[in-house]
Amino acid sequence: MISPEQVQTMIQERLSNAEVKVVGDGQHFEAIIISPDFVGKTRVKQHQIVYGALQSELASETIHALSLKTYTPEAWQANGQTV
């Protein structure tokens, strides 16, 4: 089993200057990621970047389900959100 904190750390190691919040039960996770690395990329590409950071955990089914919400810093601010 993997903790939300471990998932968060793996994402942060892959994405520079990312703000990440992960919640989950050990197999099913929801993540909000705000990163300047997403600027100019489609939502699909943003998600592929995150999946790449968790590739081995997804392939081994350590992570069974992952719901992503990805934002550029500008999009996050435009929504008036906080992590």
- Output the CATH homologous superfamily: BolA-like
Strand count, sense and closure of the main sheet? 3 strands, mixed
What topology, given as strand order, has the largest sheet? Answer: 1-2-3
- Helix vs. strand class: alpha+beta
Q: Supply the CATH class.
A: Alpha Beta
Q: What overall form do the CA principal axes indicate?
A: globular
Question: Alpha-carbon distance between the termini?
Answer: 25 Å
By DSSP, the count of extended strands is 3
Give the SSE map.
Blueprint: H1 4-14, E1 19-24, E2 28-34, H2 43-53, H3 55-59, E3 65-71, H4 73-78
Parallel strand pairs: 2-3
Antiparallel strand pairs: 1-2
Tell me what you see in this structure:
The protein has a 3-stranded mixed sheet with strand order 1-2-3. The protein has one domain (4-78): 2-Layer Sandwich (GMP Synthetase, Chain A, domain 3). It is of the alpha+beta class and 83 residues long. Helix 1 packs across helix 2 (43-53). It has helices at 4-14, 43-53, 55-59, 73-78, and strands at residues 19-24, 28-34, 65-71. Helices cover 40% and strands 24% of the residues.
